[in-house]
C-alpha cells in the first residue's frame, strides 16, 4: 500500500517538490517519501483512533474541493509542513504552501483511484486492512453505514476490528 502511495506522490510532486527551488534537489526523494509516509501514517492513525467510518467516508463520498477542508487532510498538511520545515530547511510559510497545494491534489487522486474499479492498486478493502492491521476486515458493512448515513453499529464493527472492547 505504501509503495502505491509513494508512486502517487511522485506523480504529483513535480512543481511542489522537484521543481521547487525552496527544496534542495538532494532532498527531493526524501521529501516525496515524507509526504507518502505522512498520508499513510495519518490515515492509519485515524483508523487506530476509531475513526474508520470517517476514513471510509472520505474515500467514498467527498468531492475534490471538500478534501482540502477535511480535518484529516488538514492535519496531514500541518504534519507535512512541520516536517519539511524541520528536515529540509524550508521556511514554515513556504512549507505550509507546499503541503497545502500538494496534499489535496494527491488525496484527490488517491480517492479517485480508490473508486476506480479497474485500478487494483488502490482497493478500499485492502487499504483499510493495511491501515487497521486486520487482514480479515470486511469493509462492506462500514461502506453500507456511510452510504446509508447511519451511525449505529460502528462500535460493533470496531470491536470486531480490534478484537473486542
Strand-helix topology:
Layout: H1 2-12, H2 14-18, H3 28-48, H4 52-61, H5 64-67, H6 71-88, H7 92-114, H8 124-132, H9 140-148, H10 154-161
Helix pairs in contact: 1-3, 1-7, 3-4, 3-6, 3-8, 4-9, 6-7
Structure in words:
- The chain is an all-alpha fold.
- The protein has one domain.
- The chain is 72% helix and 0% strand.
- The protein contains 10 helices and no strands.
- It has helices at residues 2-12, 14-18, 28-48, 52-61, 64-67, 71-88, 92-114, 124-132, 140-148, 154-161.
- α1 (2-12) packs across α3 (28-48) and α4 packs across α9 (140-148).
- The two termini are 28 Å apart.
- The model is unreliable at 150-165 (pLDDT under 50).
Descriptors for this entry?
single chain; 165 residues; disordered C terminus
Radius of gyration (CA) equals 16 Å
Terminus-to-terminus distance: 28 Å
Number of helices: 10
> Would you identify the regions where 5 or more consecutive residues have pLDDT less than 50?
150-165
What is the count of β-strands? 0
Give the helix/strand class.
mainly alpha
Number of structural units classed as domains: 1
Shape: elongated
- SSE string, helices as H and strands as E: HHHHHHHHHH
**In what range is the share of β-strand residues?**
under 5%
Sheet with the most strands, sense and barrel status: none
Helix proportion range: over 70%
Quote the average pLDDT. Answer: 85
Amino acid at each position: 500500500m505504501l509503495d502505491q502511495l509513494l508512486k502517487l506522490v511522485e506523480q504529483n510532486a513535480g512543481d511542489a517538490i522537484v521543481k521547487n527551488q525552496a527544496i534542495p534537489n538532494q532532498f527531493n526523494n526524501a521529501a516525496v517519501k515524507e509526504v507518502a509516509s505522512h498520508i499513510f501514517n495519518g490515515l492509519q492513525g485515524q483508523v487506530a483512533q476509531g475513526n474508520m467510518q470517517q476514513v471510509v467516508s472520505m474515500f467514498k463520498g467527498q468531492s475534490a474541493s471538500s478534501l482540502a477542508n477535511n480535518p484529516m487532510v488538514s492535519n496531514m498538511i500541518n504534519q507535512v509542513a512541520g516536517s519539511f520545515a524541520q528536515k529540509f530547511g524550508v521556511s514554515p510559510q513556504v512549507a505550509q504552501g507546499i503541503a497545502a497545494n500538494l496534499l489535496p491534489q494527491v488525496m484527490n487522486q488517491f480517492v479517485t483511484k480508490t473508486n476506480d474499479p479497474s485500478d487494483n492498486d488502490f482497493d478500499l478493502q485492502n487499504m483499510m486492512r493495511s491501515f487497521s492491521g486486520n487482514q480479515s476486515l470486511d469493509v462492506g458493512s462500514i461502506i453500507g453505514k456511510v452510504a446509508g448515513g447511519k451511525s449505529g453499529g460502528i462500535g460493533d464493527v470496531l470491536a470486531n476490528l480490534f478484537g473486542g472492547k
